[in-house]
Design a protein that fits this description.
Elements: E1 2-5, H1 17-25, E2 34-42, H2 60-72, E3 75-79, H3 80-85, E4 107-111, H4 119-122, E5 131-134, H5 140-150, E6 155-157, H6 165-174, E7 179-182, H7 186-194, E8 200-206, E9 227-234, E10 238-245
Parallel strand pairs: 2-7, 2-8, 3-4, 3-7, 4-5, 5-6
Antiparallel strand pairs: 1-9, 8-10, 9-10
The chain binds NADP nicotinamide-adenine-dinucleotide phosphate (NAP).
GO biological process, one term: riboflavin biosynthetic process
InterPro entries: DHFR-like_dom_sf, RibDG_C, Riboflavin_Biosynth_HTPR
Pathway: Cofactor biosynthesis; riboflavin biosynthesis
């Protein structure tokens, strides 16, 4: 992997795991909360492969960034469909480099209007307490099943028929989970962008076209969100970028609130 942008100070442009961690930590510690979204797409814009999952369009360099971002995070936020399709289990304590990660590793927080997650699968691996971010019209049996396994304080209710994302994110922050990483999917990303909760999009573009009917990385809402390039890395299989949401009104124009 090589650093393309900004041009590195030294002639050595190679990016190893330590350099990758440095590049992805830069600028995130000054804010009281930082929410980034990590997504992968093909060069022709597909957010999933023919099997309906994102793993089949991922690459070795994408996996390195994925692990680096998990190491940085206090909580991994995902939509319930991603939890179902990508067969998420709660996150193991091993996720993330020991020297930088949250003690115990990141928690997993699932956003769901129905409250329906596969609790058996979730608990089929060791890990920290998973959280369910849901709303008042959720299926009461599903919510009861979740809290019976994860604990009453693992269920956060925000909103009536959908999760009020600003309230849910504030609740995570109030629990000290201030480094928030969303791993998608496209509908959750649309909701987070529409609510102006995203500080940064981390996008790996695989150097391939797959055609087909697959959706894009954002779905469900119309947006007019602008980004500014922060870092661009190149690998044999991917182009990897950190894109900050542009908030020209922010004090230093950096996008930081
Ligand atoms: N390319 C990538 O980087 C990437 C990343 C992640 C996922 N994916 C792919 O994306 C596909 C799934 O797409 P998707 O857009 O359906 O995934 P998603 O956004 O993860 O899940 C949508 C579901 O999340 C819940 N949800 C999201 N926002 C909500 C809100 N504000 N309030 C209440 N519930 C909310 C709902 O769950 P309920 O139905 O339970 O109410 C909704 O049906 C899969 O094929 C997956 O592999 C790709």
């Amino acid at each position: 992997m090589r650093q393309l942008m900004p041009p590195p100070d030294s002639p050595d442009t190679a990016v190893d795991d330590d350099r990758l961690a440095e590049l992805y930590a830069a600028g995130t510690t000054e804010a009281a909360r930082w929410l980034r979204v990590n997504m992968v797409s093909t060069l022709d814009g597909a957010a999933m492969g023919a099997d309906g999952r994102s793993g089949s369009i991922s690459s070795d360099s994408d996996k390195s960034v994925f692990q680096t971002l998990r190491a940085w995070s206090d909580v991994v936020l995902i939509g319930a469909e991603t939890a179902r399709v990508e067969r998420y289990t709660r996150l193991s304590h091993e996720h993330g480099r020991a020297d930088v990660r949250r003690p115990g590793g990141p928690l997993l927080a699932i956003v769901s209007a129905t409250g329906r997650v596969d609790v058996d699968r979730l608990f089929s691996a060791d890990g920290g307490q998973p959280l369910l971010l849901t709303c008042r019209t959720a299926d009461p049996d599903a919510v009861r099943e979740f809290s019976a396994r994860a604990g009453d304080d693992a269920v956060l209710i925000a909103g009536d028929t959908a999760v009020d994302l600003p309230t849910a994110v504030d609740e995570l922050t109030a629990r000290g989970l201030t480094r928030i990483l969303s791993e998608g999917g496209p509908h959750l990303l649309g909701g987070l962008l529409a609510a102006d909760l995203v500080d940064e999009l981390d996008l790996t573009i695989g150097l391939e076209a797959r055609g087909g009917e697959a959706g894009r990385i954002v779905q469900g809402v119309r947006l007019d969100t602008r980004f500014a390039a922060h870092t661009l890395l190149g690998a044999g299989d991917s182009l990897i970028g950190r894109w900050l949401v542009s908030r020209p009104e922010s004090p230093d124009g950096s996008g930081r609130r």
